[in-house]
Amino acid sequence: MLDETLASLPVPAEKRIALRVTRPAERALRDGHPWLYDNAIRTQSHVGKPGDLAVVFDHKKRFLAIGLYDPCSPIRVRILQHTEPTPINQDWLAGKIEQARGIRSALPAETTGYRLIHGENDGLPGLVLDAYAQTWVLKIYSAAWISFLGDLLPLLIDLSPERIILRLSREVARHPEHLHGLADGTILWGPPLKGPVLFKENGLTFEVDPVHGQKTGFFLDQRDNRARVESLADGKSVLNLFAYSGGFSLYAARGGARSVTSVDISSAALQAAERNFAHNQDHPAIAGAEHKTVVGDAFEITSQLHADGLRYDMVIIDPPSFAKSLSEANKALRAYRRLTRLGLSVLNPGGVFVQASCSSRVSPGDFFAAIHQEAQLAGRPLGDIECTGHPIDHPIGFPEGEYLKCLFATLSR
Length: 413
Known about the structure:
Blueprint: H1 2-7, E1 17-21, H2 23-30, E2 35-37, E3 41-44, E4 53-57, E5 63-69, E6 75-82, H3 90-103, E7 113-118, E8 127-132, E9 135-140, H4 149-157, E10 163-168, H5 170-173, E11 187-189, E12 197-201, E13 204-208, H6 223-232, E14 237-241, H7 247-254, E15 259-264, H8 267-279, H9 284-288, E16 290-295, H10 298-307, E17 312-317, H11 329-345, E18 347-357, H12 364-377, E19 382-388, E20 405-411
Parallel strand pairs: 1-4, 9-10, 14-15, 14-17, 15-16, 17-18
Antiparallel strand pairs: 1-3, 2-6, 4-5, 5-6, 7-8, 8-9, 10-11, 12-13, 18-20, 19-20
Helix pairs in contact: 6-7, 10-11, 11-12
């Protein structure tokens, strides 16, 4: 399968594309930014295809950067190397992978689910690699990476995964003419899947569907925040909104929560949550916790819970991204404010309030301020326990790379 796959893939053109860019783009690239947008290109030597290498020069014809060219994306070049020219080849890729592995050497014990490559932040823009035990999921956000799979796959296979699965972003999947027969969910290496994949996170067993699940199948970036929930959950009734496959719910149960209610709009996700509880019945606290699932819109369900007079000792709100672009940031903040008010309306005095955001277009400062302002307006002020960010396997390498923030707080009254 591997030989057949590699034989059908393109390779970058030998002739590199030469680009001249605007002065603001020059400054951004000198500062190490990993993206060059199409509207910042002033001149281009010739037309290229996805995966060709583009060399960026400044106004004095000096080398600025080299990166992957993608004519299908407004991010026209994803920068691989700044300032000093270097060959972009298999040895270069091997060095980046080794650096990424070194950063993750301090991952928690009993954890086999983690992010091995975090795109731009590990120097490989548009490329994500998540490990679920011995099943690895390679997700690409630019068709430009297909030309480099021939160099990349052997390096990953040398690290001994059982299989490697390819996932495509929506934008990449929209251009089948550049995929050379590859599709979302293609197994690039190893045997076919026989049901869900099981992996460990801080000693808990989770299942993942790496072919059909959201992103690569699981939200690995919330691992540390799930552990914080566990430390705060003892004896509490817990409401987990946007629960997906029950990550926060399971940690809360192991932390001693007496009851956990998981709410999600996807019945399939909640069925996975129930199976995750079943995978961990050897933990007495999990076996003893009452777990209830509710299928529906989190906004509507929470309003109904409030109307029904139901209250909880801990409320967890971990919604999907509400802002895909900067123009949507204010709309996202309004949604976060609404969720804050709804969540606080069903939280007991003295209870623990947890609210997260994965919208990179909303800054941590604006997010935390919006929550506290809405809490004050609702007459339910919050006292901070902790404000958190990214775990070790999701490093931040540039401003737009910072997306995750989470508030842990207590309700004063």
